[in-house]
Protein 1
Amino acid sequence: MSTGTTISTVVMLLSLCLQQSWADAVQPGVLYSDQACIECHAEREPDLVQQWRMSAHGEASGVDCSGCHGERHQQPSQRMTVQAREDATCAGCHQGSAAHSYVTSKHGVINTIEASRQDWSAPLQVGNYRAPGCSYCHNYGGDHSDTMAPERGPAVRQWICAGCHSPRYVREQFENGVRQLAIADLKLAEGDTLLATADHLEEEQRLALKQSQLDHRRNVLYGVGHQSPDYQWWHGQPALDGDLIRIRDAVDKSQRREPLRGD
Ligand code: HEC
Ligand code: HEC
Ligand code: HEC
Ligand code: HEC
Ligand code: HEC
């Protein structure tokens, strides 16, 4: 046996012992606090825990490890990872337009139709899923921040889509998204300009009109992010047009009221 082989055998045995002591430390069925998950896993996977800390699910929002994985290591332990991948886990918290825009997209429709045969035990990687669920897009490759965040850039999010679509098609989808949001922002700016001219509008009504615009702008974001035509074209742009009509109407009325009040 050469020295090289002996050394590598010793290293292998040592790492086996180390893994063994880790595995001994976790007990299936024991209820762990989130503090315990974080402390133990920060030693095992510092990068993963750091990604979570910096994410929207980090400490500030209080969505801890157990929010997605459950509170107990299971036998076999794989189970905790499987639970976190399931659409139902994400949609349990993200109800409303986040979930509904996905359900009305082609990806959502495919996953709903195939729900009974859906196998979430495969890692979130290309080739393992026919259509992406929430976690496939947002936690691709086990990333614990958000792989769809615009600041991650096209190299991350467009590359993930391009595992299933042509790169050119994907680029066009994202370019369309940028245009749609720019149009939505023009409508918001026009709303602001109109509202600024209405001196006699009740504050409560002003806030409600503004909030409605913000909600519908968010629908456009969900529409383009989740590839849901309903959210782009029904709950999104036309709803923003409706907001502008309501704002104009409210401003007109408030101005008509003015001379009466001045009497
Ligand atoms: C005392 C240390 C320790 C604590 C506490 C702990 N874990 Fe683990 N965890 C481990 C070890 C070791 C493994 C790898 C063991 C294995 O795969 O059998 C693991 C594996 C995992 C996996 C991957 C499972 C798989 O095999 O795919 C997840 C997910 C996980 N833990 C989440 C949690 C959560 C959530 C908590 C808190 C409720 C937690 N852990 C608490 C040590 C710990
Ligand atoms: C927003 C939901 C969510 C939260 C919160 C979350 N995870 Fe995960 N986690 C996932 C998903 C989804 C996967 C599966 C990734 C994959 O298949 O590539 C996963 C996978 C893992 C794995 C297995 C990694 C591997 O490579 O096999 C571990 C370990 C883990 N998570 C630990 C944690 C710990 C510790 C915390 C808290 C600090 C945490 N997770 C918080 C969703 C979450
Ligand atoms: C226990 C509840 C809970 C679970 C489970 C959960 N989330 Fe979240 N999520 C939140 C909260 C709270 C926030 C921060 C507030 C917000 O922006 O809605 C958030 C934020 C986000 C954001 C960023 C939103 C933003 O405004 O920047 C994304 C994307 C997201 N979650 C996706 C997911 C996905 C994908 C899953 C499943 C793998 C998941 N979430 C599981 C509660 C949850
Ligand atoms: C095809 C990939 C894909 C799937 C599947 C998907 N998302 Fe998204 N999601 C995106 C993209 C892209 C965005 C837009 C991000 C941006 O530009 O800010 C987004 C936006 C979001 C946001 C808002 C983020 C923000 O910055 O305000 C949340 C929350 C969210 N998704 C949760 C979910 C949940 C929950 C599911 C499943 C019910 C899901 N997503 C399914 C790609 C996906
Ligand atoms: C795991 C594979 C997979 C991933 C990843 C994926 N898709 Fe899809 N996508 C599909 C399948 C399958 C369909 C339905 C068949 C079709 O129309 O091509 C589909 C349909 C679509 C459609 C609707 C097409 C139509 O004719 O109505 C759009 C748009 C789309 N995807 C864009 C995206 C974008 C953007 C991403 C990334 C954020 C993405 N997809 C990620 C598999 C995927």
Protein 2
Amino acid sequence: MLNRAFDIVWFTLTATNQHGIHSPSLFQLYEHVIRDDRKFHAFEKLEVYRNQLLRNSEKIDILELGAGSSYGSASSKQIKEVASQQLSSPYQLRVLFRLIEWVEAENIVELGASLGLSSFYLAATSTKNTVTSFEGNPHFVKLIKLQNLRLGFENLHLIEGNFDKTYPEFIQSGPKVDFIFIDGNHREQATIDYFLQSLKIIDEDGIIVLDDIHWSLGMQKAWKKIKAHERVNASIDLYMMGIIFLSPEYKEKRHLNIRPRIWT
Ligand SMILES: C[S@@+](CC[C@H](N)C(=O)[O-])C[C@H]1O[C@@H](n2cnc3c(N)ncnc32)[C@H](O)[C@@H]1O
């Protein structure tokens, strides 16, 4: 608790806005992805799905696969509880969407689909893009598939099972990937492992986004180690998530803490 309070104060004090960004490429990205608030047609439709989830009192079984939840463990929960605890915010999902658009990513991977909202946002970026989303809870996967019968994202592929088994198998198959969103199993070592595994398949210009990088001391340590990896050329810490840039376009390493638009 104390660590969290200190961490947020430290972030607020060290975070910058557009005036502190000296790299032209990162400045452009800030303007078009982080600060921009264009609303795309798909957002409205997907936020309807969020609202349906937030009203749904049906129970769904929960599997403890990762670091667990700060809301306590239960073998089943109402769908509305899962939605309010797990789903990324509209702002976060819009940033992911605009980021994919801005860097023209085409082959996207997501670790941790939950109820599928983020997976649908990723798939909505373009019908030409391919999204492979991993999720360990079979009840969640079933719900996502049912919802996708209505939404019709043919470019979304779900892989069910524990990442520790399914992700290495996927990597073995030699996929082409240029964008990875890691949002499941928020343990320090697991997060580092998924990052290192991701480096085996991602393009040299690729982007890796890690969710909840300040969620725990372990996640803060994982983020620090990941930023320092030799293949990382720049990073942006938006507090709720961190963006890792591998592209050699960022010759000088730059690590920025940026106040997200919702805080400015
Ligand atoms: C925070 S939620 C994902 C939220 C979603 N990306 C969003 O933004 O709406 C994390 C998900 O990862 C899944 N998960 C955690 N650890 C896992 C593991 N080791 N293998 C497979 N799935 C896992 C959980 O079941 C949960 O649905």
